[in-house]
Amino acid sequence: MKKLAVLLALTCALSGATQAMAKDISFSSPLTQKQFRDLTREAGAAISYKNIAPAEPLGISGFDVGAELSAIDISNSSYWNAAYRGDSPSFLVIPKLRARKGLPMGIDVGAMYSYVPDSNIKLWGIEVSKAILEGTAATPALGVRATYSRLSGVNDLDLQTAGIDASISKGLLIMTPYAGVGGVWVNSEAKGRLKALAPGLDTEDVFQPRVFGGIKFSPLPLLGVTAEVEYQERLIYSLKAGLSF
């Protein structure tokens, strides 16, 4: 119960950290096709399903639930200013709740949901991963993963991503460093006000590579804290606190 209380407190803290920066995405000026493509790439990077976990599987009885916070620098971008009615924040900060369940044969499945308080930004996603090597005390774990995520709540933009990646990790006492590479396909379509402001905007379909690395700390039984840095168009910083059992 104490660990659950800690997790709930962290979830509230993450939500509070984003509340001061929360703003609706609602376009006030048109975009060129290039600006829309650039926005698609960076928004896709922001909402794509993050890794935030070592490569080893949870096991058939394993379950992981946690609170996560991701932040991407969106400063000095005319298209983000247009998306935020001329007053975009320096960072797009997204809190999330995540859960992952172990299945037989080294397979894990997971889901995430996010709502940025006091804004129209919501998103959800799913993942499935397979351990190629489950890892031992002497050998690393190697896994592959497929993901899907979708933005909801923003009437001016239809945005979704699909990704695939591979990662490697090796436990060292209470630490488990990991690294991985992959790619993300992003699809976007102008809707609502943006479509009215720029009726000529075409749908964008882009592919972008991603690389990431992180480390999971397990200072107490069942409790883990994971920090990760990803590069996908821009640097993305993520932090997760979770319970595994």
Concise structural overview:
This is Outer membrane protein beta-barrel domain-containing protein. This protein is an alpha+beta fold.
What does this structure look like?
It comes from Geomonas paludis. This is Outer membrane protein beta-barrel domain-containing protein. With 245 residues, the chain is of the alpha+beta class. It has a single domain (2-244), classed as Porin (Beta Barrel), CATH 2.40.160.20. Helix content is 18%, strand content 51%. The protein has helices spanning 2-19, 33-47, 78-83, 192-197, and strands at 63-73, 91-103, 107-115, 122-133, 141-152, 157-169, 175-190, 204-220, 223-232, 234-244. It has a ten-stranded antiparallel barrel. Strand 4 (122-133) and strand 5 (141-152) form a beta hairpin. Residues 1-21 have low confidence and may be disordered.
Order of neighbouring strands in the sheet with most strands: 1-2-3-4-5-6-7-8-9-10
Largest sheet: 10 strands, antiparallel, barrel
State Rg: 18 Å
The proportion of strand residues reads: over 45%
Task: Name the average pLDDT.
Answer: 89
In the CATH hierarchy, what is the class? Mainly Beta
**Second CATH tier, the architecture:** Beta Barrel
* CATH domain topology: Porin
Overall SS class: alpha+beta
Q: What number of domains?
A: 1
H/E element order: HHEHEEEEEEHEEE
Helix content: 10-25%
Give me the number of helical elements: 4
Note poorly predicted spans: 1-21
| Shape summary | elongated
Counting DSSP E segments of at least 2 residues, the number of strands comes to 10
The end-to-end distance, rounded to whole angstroms, is 13 Å
